[in-house]
């Protein structure tokens, strides 16, 4: 299996999520997800991402344009969780506003020690209400609200402590650590991972009884899949499984 890297490339604008950047991100995510070989997607950028391009949100643009920006952004963030492969955010630097939302929306996030995370919209009179959707689902409520009300950044270690990122490593180990996680994911069956990811996001918003009903059925379905049987047989026979694709 292969790992696809989507690099946010507009360092002059601190990788702002402008309409063209959002369209490009959606196109890359959808294009990569269709690849049979693909097992994992990594999103990264030299600044990571500074959020929306504020020049697009001035009063010179009409409400229709503003709606387009936020609707497309929401589509991209929800698309990440709908993709059949794990998506890793590799953060080396500042992730603010919609950039912070992107980190919170990814399945896994690996950050360098110098990384910071903030939702500073309140300071310029544009409260980060859409980033708050992802943030409030990743962080304890009071941590998310302190970020949203003050605009003050979380350090990488604080982000780790509160669960916004999965791992914090020295900057010179960031590539290696992200690659290690990607390679480990690549050892598993793509169809089993896809089933597991879709089920995880489906059950996580449910009450306990419903969550167990959903996952009990999925476990039974999983056993009927070719890779489910192959994995168990390989384990019993003490050999490496041969996945169907």
UniProtKB/TrEMBL annotation:
CDD domains: crotonase-like (cd06558)
SUPFAM superfamilies given in the database record: ClpP/crotonase
InterPro entries (UniProt xref): ClpP/crotonase-like_dom_sf (IPR029045), Enoyl-CoA_hydra/iso (IPR001753), Enoyl-CoA_hydra_C (IPR014748), Mitochondrial_ECH-domain (IPR052377)
Alphabetical keyword list: Fatty acid metabolism, Lipid metabolism, Mitochondrion, Transit peptide
Places the protein is found: Mitochondrion
Gene Ontology process terms (BP): fatty acid metabolic process
GO molecular function: hydro-lyase activity
Membership in a protein family: Belongs to the enoyl-CoA hydratase/isomerase family.
Function: May play a role in fatty acid biosynthesis and insulin sensitivity.
Protein name (Swiss-Prot/TrEMBL): Enoyl-CoA hydratase domain-containing protein 3, mitochondrial
Gene: Echdc3
């Amino acid at each position: 299996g292969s790992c696809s890297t989507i690099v946010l490339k507009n360092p002059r604008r601190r990788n702002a999520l402008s309409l063209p950047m959002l369209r490009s991100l959606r196109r890359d995510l959808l294009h990569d997800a269709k690849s049979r070989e693909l097992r994992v997607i990594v999103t990264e950028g030299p600044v990571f991402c500074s959020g929306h391009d504020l020049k697009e949100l001035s009063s010179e643009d009409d409400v229709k344009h503003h709606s387009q920006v936020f609707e497309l952004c929401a589509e991209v963030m929800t698309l990440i969780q709908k993709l059949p492969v794990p998506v890793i955010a590799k953060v080396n630097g500042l992730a603010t506003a919609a950039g912070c939302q992107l980190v919170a929306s990814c399945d896994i996030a690996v950050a360098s020690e110098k990384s910071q995370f903030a939702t500073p919209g309140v300071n310029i009179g544009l409260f980060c209400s859409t980033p708050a959707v992802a943030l409030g689902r990743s962080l304890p409520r009071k941590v998310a609200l302190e970020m949203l009300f003050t605009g003050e950044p979380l350090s990488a270690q604080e982000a780790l402590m509160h669960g916004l990122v999965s791992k914090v490593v020295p900057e010179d180990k960031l590539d290696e650590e992200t690659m290690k996680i990607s390679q480990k994911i690549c050892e598993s069956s793509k169809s089993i991972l896809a089933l597991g990811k879709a089920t995880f996001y489906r059950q996580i918003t449910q009450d306990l009884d419903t969550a167990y009903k959903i996952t009990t059925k999925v476990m039974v379905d999983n056993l009927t899949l070719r890779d489910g049987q192959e994995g168990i047989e390989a384990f019993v026979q003490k050999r490496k499984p041969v996945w169907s694709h």
